[in-house]
Amino acid sequence: MSILRKTSAIALMIAMGGTMAHADTKPAAKDIVIVHGALVDGSGWRAVHDILSKDGFHVTIVQEPLTGLAEDVEATKRAIDQQPGPVVLVGHSYAGSVITVAGADPKVTALVYVAALQPDTGEASGQLLSKFAAPDNAMRTTANRGTQDKFLSLPPAKFREAYAADVSAPDALFLADSQQQLAEKALGAPVSVVAWRTKPTYAILTTQDHIVSPELQRWMYQRSGAKVTEVSASHAVFVSQPAAVARVIEASAKQANNS
What we know:
The protein has helices at 3-24, 46-54, 69-81, 95-102, 125-129, 156-163, 169-177, 184-187, 214-224, 237-240, 242-258, and strands spanning 31-35, 58-62, 87-92, 108-114, 140-143, 150-153, 182-183, 201-206, 227-231. By secondary structure, the protein is of the alpha/beta class.
């Protein structure tokens, strides 16, 4: 072999070795699926989406119907099916129950609970919420036209205080005016699949939360053994502190690569 060919071969091996080493440091999951909670839609996650996208992740935000746990799980599963690779599944608030079920999908490598409910087998969302009553509960119930279904919402005048106390007044008003009502039956549906028992689990505990009480969050996350990050924030932490939320999501993707 000529000196030139030997030099080229060595250079190629070095280049490939460098590429492989770099690949080893990349997150296993480049696809992030975010499931919004009750009373809001996915638009409030724009800032988190932009941070993750800038950092090289592909982000999909599920727009749940919020008409029932089964329907919301199915909407989430459809989003997971669209992803080409491993997925970090993120759920906020009520959507913690959704990702607890949908997260059993083999594509899901890690779960991130953001001020979220985390039921165990046979538990329902409403059952957990009643365990530690949230302060300043201003929820109201509205009957659906033509059916017996009832839906929950927050009066716009009370929305900022209850849900988004650390969010600017204009942003809180937008959240209030664009809120989605949650079917009451969704809170009564027990889960039969519990993904957090077998998947790496992370949690953001919001210490100023008036929707899902911090005491309930702490109890659930200790029970599951989740890696907890406490943030001094309201229930709308994804709006008020998107960088903190994005950091936990990215950490979960990187940790999944090493587990």
